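Memo to structure team: turn this sequence into structure tokens by end of day. - J.P.
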Amino acid sequence: MRIVSKNTVDVVLIGGGVMSATLGTLIKQVQPDWSIEVFESRTEVATESTNAWNNAGTGHAALCELNYMPEAADGSLSADKAIDINEQFQLSRQWWSTLVEKGILGDPSSFINPTPHMTFVRGESNVDYLRRRYEILKDEPLFADMEFSEDPEQIAAWAPLLVDRRSKDEVFAATRSESGTDVDFGAVTHQLFDYLVSQGAKLHLGHQVRKLKRRADGTWDVFVRNLSGYGKKVVNAKFVFVGAGGGALSLLQSSKIPEIKGFGGFPISGKFLKTDNPDIVAKHKAKVYGKAAVGAPPMSVPHLDTRVVDGKESILFGPYAGFSPNFLKKGSWWDLPGSIRAHNLGPMIKVGLTQWSLEKYLAGELMASRETQMNTLREYMPTARTSDWEMITAGQRVQVMKKDPEKGGILQFGTEVITGAEGSIAGLLGASPGASTAVYAMLGVLEKCFPEQYSSQWSKTFTAQVPALGTGLNGDPEAARASLAATAETLGLPPSQAARSRLP
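Reply from structure team:
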């Protein structure tokens, strides 16, 4: 007998991660009367990619990540992508500041901490690239605190572990931005869901959404299984957001919206070396990103990161990649083969035949010994001892594969928002910069799915909470300076001396 829902809710959020938490909280700012139900398959929220130990905790603002400013074939550099990513992160900073002031988020140090962002490169060609990158970015208002140095003593003052016992003949350079941050997105998510529940939202833990089916009236039947009691139910929703991480692809496929056709996913598991040795931790206060090897995919960029979780500092180095067909850390071996459809098989095969760099990288990672892994760390920290570090398994990330009219199929790095069925359903695929740009992504979902309400009613509220929305900051040095200073004060971040001295 088919179970039929008798009640319709305004919004169903699938997945208890930072995206669902952000979207639900945004909705409550403009439609406090809307009913919201959240379904999370695990027994608590923020257990998959959002969990603090399942990601690097970088507040992605393109301050240190070179993949947002790649060198073109002719050697030229463009700051456009880097500026765009930074602008998106500023929306998050502004909104979190507003929520702190409103009491929705608690003590800022519980979820965000000042952590300078650095880039470290070795070799003449890489130093030349980094210098040219710096010369372009230093005059951009959102990058005004960036510093560049080839001086070993200066770099040692910034991050001594990078220089200690390094060969005096080695050529290297670094950039540093004081405005960088370490973000515990798990803490953000927990606090936002606490707020949502206090505002009447219903949070169902241990409940797995199995499929979605659209009714003739445009609403959605959400088929749910209670994993503890083995009960089944159907919830009818006017709007559904699929923020289920690696589980989003299969649910969007079950909805049968045409917009999901041609999309596939390739899972990659992440691992990090971690140390809690207080002597080592005390010497490193930065997130230090490097440059991917020639031909290697963007995900392979190594970084040596300060992490602050539950008030305790540690250092992570990675990521190292592994392979599992699971789309979620607690997923199933059937996830990958079960996602194959007639419409995405061609693009997936095309990607498999053309992405030799990714396949070579993964093969090398899977075959790497512990000593090989440690030697990679020693390229950044020459004094690293194997006994001080343990390997931890982070989250699963599903790289998006999609149909391409010219190449047949491409690997899509970054975050992909899927909307369909006249704005009644939306979902998120992909990974980095992900959580850092959650506010930008979820405001985009609301604008696309509810265009009339957004333009006529909601935009005024959102603009009051996120002043840079729709205008940006980088084109206005004074606005950039004011925003960075204001959010720094509210979030307990130090003001940037370099930025104050450089901006007019």
